[in-house]
Amino acid sequence: MKIALTGIKPTGNLHIGNYFGAIKPALELSQRYTARYFIADYHALNTVKDPAELRRYVLEIAAGWLAAGLDPQRVVFYRQSSVPETFELATILMAFTAKGLMNRAHAYKAAAQANGEKGLDADAGVNMGLYTYPALMAADILLFDPDAVPVGRDQTQHVEMAADIAQALNFNYKKPLLKIPEAVVQESVAVVPGLDGRKMSKSYGNAIPLFAPEKQLRKLVMRVVTNSQGVGESKDPDASQLFALYKLFASEAEQAALASRYRAGGMGWGDAKEELFYAANRCLAPMRERFDALIADPAGLGEVLASGAERARAIAKETLRRLRDAIGITMNKE
Ligand code: TRP
Fold first, then answer.
1. Does the annotation mark 202 as catalytic?
2. Per-residue pLDDT for the chain (334 aa), expressed as one digit of tens each?
3. Which of 82, 126, 187, 294 is the most buried (most CB within 10 A)?
């Protein structure tokens, strides 16, 4: 079976956009691939500098993915920081990573440009963690020989950089020491609209948390922006973000039935919201229950992650042994 690997940055609470855009497709992929999914806690350190916050985010991501259906028997699920081989590989890769490549990484370029627009020095507030982010990400990836790296569109450049770095290293030693990874972007994944109709994103403040308690979920659904059409008017489901959200949670038959009620007129936005809340809560309630149970048992989560880390390290050590040997770091070899 081919290998899929992805990293999840623990920098905030999971929302519905994360679930439909990343978690659900990655879990589907784990049925067809040997999957290695990890929590990228050292990537988060670049921005999360409060220890309690970092711990909380890591636990929430772990509980969230498990609640969403990740099977830790099937998927090697671990924290990046529990696999120190990552950091040794990152050091090796640095010697094959052109500085110019890092200059072109879009996260760094965006920061430099934002600084420029504010009349600041290009590197103001940029730490080396952010600058070398793609090299660490390359280590995350190349350590585990994945064929496929499922990521959002914004991360494809980083995966291409990992492939470039692997090629530079392989070329130097004239051996296929590292497998060349490929990004997999789920084209069919719908953009999940947020409360205001823009793409759901933590940074826009328009997100519906994945595990919001029922009351809060209801409140948020009632806040989804609609146009000002009255009850009697015929409404276009395809122009409504309320309906776009409904589609994520409802069966095809339910979608068709509600679409005709939209078109017929006689249904107000309040009713359309009730329908969305009903369908969303039906899907999310069991996950929320599992999440609440998991998050209440941090020691249990720790055990799941520790056993994942053990399996991950066995693979990582093998990669490192192969590389150390090939590059001449291992001594006493003829
Ligand atoms: N950079 C990714 C993000 O921000 C997270 C990540 C870290 C990752 N290492 C990875 C993704 C390795 C895929 C493979 O979402």
1. yes
2. 999 999 999 987 899 999 999 999 999 999 999 999 999 999 999 999 999 999 999 999 999 999 999 999 999 999 999 999 999 999 999 999 999 999 999 989 999 999 999 999 999 999 999 999 999 999 999 999 999 999 988 899 999 999 999 999 999 999 999 999 999 997 766 789 999 999 999 889 999 999 999 999 999 999 999 999 999 999 999 999 999 999 999 999 999 999 999 999 999 999 999 999 999 999 999 999 999 999 999 999 999 999 999 999 999 999 999 999 999 999 876 5
3. 294
Give the pairing of strands 76-79 and 34-39: parallel
Is 215 catalytic? The answer is no
Determine if ligand 1 sits within 6 Å of the CB of residue 7.
Answer: yes
DSSP state of 33: S
Q: Residue 219 C-alpha to ligand 1 middle, in angstroms? A: 32
8-state DSSP, 193: B
Q: From the candidates 24, 109, 179, 202, give the one annotated as an active-site residue.
A: 202
Q: How far apart are CA 281 and CA 62, in angstroms?
A: 22
Both tokens assigned to 89: 């590989």
Ligand 1 center–CA 9 separation, angstroms: 6
